[in-house]
Amino acid sequence: MTSGLLLIDKAQGWTSHDAVARTRRLAGTRKVGHAGTLDPMATGLLVLGIDSSTRLLTYVVGLDKEYLATIRLGQSTTTDDAEGDELTRATAEQVTALSAAAVAAGIMDLTGEISQQPSAVSAIKVDGKRAYARVRAGEDVQLPYRPVTVSEFELRSSTHGDGFLDLEVRVECTSGTYIRALARDLGRALGVGGHLTALRRTRIGPFRIENAATLEQIDVVAQLISPADAATRLLPRLDLSREEAIDLGHGKRITIDRDPTRTGPVAAIAPDGRLVGLVEYRGDQAKSLLNFAPDEPDTVDASESTPTP
């Protein structure tokens, strides 16, 4: 199996681990990793790395993301989403009294650079143990606030029904932003409570859900994004001569002309289009950070069982 990145459209009910396990079987390799989980309730984009391209996932994890979500105003839950138990419920009159202007103002207050407290049932570790595990053990977990940026918080539509107000929203945000925390905080600010009832991730950096496939439909070989294509979507490109590609592949530094304002890792591409590796600039030289040699197969038995959610 050639290495590369794979874009998966995760179905509801699957864990990210389930998706990785199924992909290992489909790709015939154990070397599969992901660039950020999705809760089982959520659907949408997972970026998986196959074989040596798992090393590119480091440059995917911290990218901005886009989500489509449904926020229900009028009820708060223990998990800030639909899977938790009810904490509070507003009266139908309170929900009906919410004005469009008040909702818009609440959304505006949660747009831009904000301080957000992650949900207590998140996967954040507290003294080496996941926060959600501590909550399940009966602990009262209060995670510290942290800065995040919500660059877009767009209300697309709203629907009244059954004593609730459902908001269909689109959110673009920095990595580490919790959409269910936005739902919680919006409902709290409006005095009626709120939680998330649906979540779909539609973009991670340059990768979009339109180019993803479900695990039932995917053709791994046909839809694998090559290491060179993936790396040049994520990082600036440096085209090498044949001799430079050989030298970098052997761990040598090469002398180059470059823009002195350019910093950070660069994708070094051989004349045949292959990703030689990721390099960094040191003065007028480029030094290899990661080399991408051809993958050695690491197969798994196609009959190996895969968890079914």
UniProtKB/TrEMBL annotation:
The record's listing under CDD domains reads: PseudoU_synth_EcTruB (cd02573)
In Swiss-Prot or TrEMBL terms, this protein is called: tRNA pseudouridine synthase B
Keywords of the record, alphabetical order, are:
Isomerase, tRNA processing
What Pfam families is this protein classified in? TruB_C, TruB_C_2, TruB_N
GO terms (BP aspect): mRNA pseudouridine synthesis; tRNA pseudouridine synthesis
Q: What is the organism field in this record?
A: Cryobacterium suzukii
Q: Does the keyword Isomerase apply?
A: yes
Q: What does this protein do?
A: Responsible for synthesis of pseudouridine from uracil-55 in the psi GC loop of transfer RNAs.
Give residue ranges for domain tRNA pseudouridylate synthase B C-terminal: 180-220
